[in-house]
């Protein structure tokens, strides 16, 4: 299941990043770096899980905190830029 989460996350982030690049979001590189760090953390948990470590609670807590923080703060920051870009097309 962790592998599927990583795969889905990578696909989701790629789509989001393409949208941000198309909209000319000025903080795209910082946003990509945030995405990379998240994928790295989940990948590290996956590796530990494959070695027999129970990472369930840690993963759930990280997802809860990260998703709330990311959506509320980082994703909210690009809404105006994307809306303006969509209005021009």
Quick recap of the structure?
The chain has 89 residues and is mainly alpha-helical. It has 4 helices and no strands.
Identify the notable features of this structure and list them briefly.
mainly alpha, 4 helices, 89 residues, single chain
Your description of this structure?
This protein has 89 residues and is mostly helical. It has one domain (2-17, 36-88). Helices cover 84% and strands 0% of the residues. It is built from four helices and no strands. It has helices at 2-23, 28-50, 56-75, 79-88. Helix 1 packs antiparallel against helix 2 (28-50) and helix 1 (2-23) crosses helix 4. The longest helix has 23 residues, at 28-50. It is elongated and about 50 Å long. The N and C termini lie far apart (39 Å).
Indicate the proportion of strand residues: under 5%
Low-confidence stretches: none
Large-scale geometry: elongated
Largest sheet, described in full? none
Instruction: State the separation between the terminal residues, measured CA to CA.
Output: 39 Å
Task: Tell me the series of helices and strands, N- to C-terminal.
Answer: HHHH
- Structural category: mainly alpha
Mean pLDDT: 90
Domain Hemerythrin-like: 2-79
Pfam family, one: Hemerythrin
GO molecular function: metal ion binding; oxygen carrier activity
Family: Belongs to the hemerythrin family.
């Amino acid at each position: 299941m962790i592998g599927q989460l990583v795969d889905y996350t990578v696909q989701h982030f790629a789509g989001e990043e393409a949208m941000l690049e198309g909209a000319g979001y000025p903080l795209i590189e910082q946003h990509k770096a945030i995405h990379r760090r998240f994928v790295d953390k989940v990948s590290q948990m996956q590796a530990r899980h494959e070695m027999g470590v129970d990472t369930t609670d840690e993963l759930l807590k990280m997802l809860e905190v990260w998703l709330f923080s990311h959506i509320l703060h980082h994703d909210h920051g690009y809404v105006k830029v994307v809306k303006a870009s969509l209005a021009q097309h």
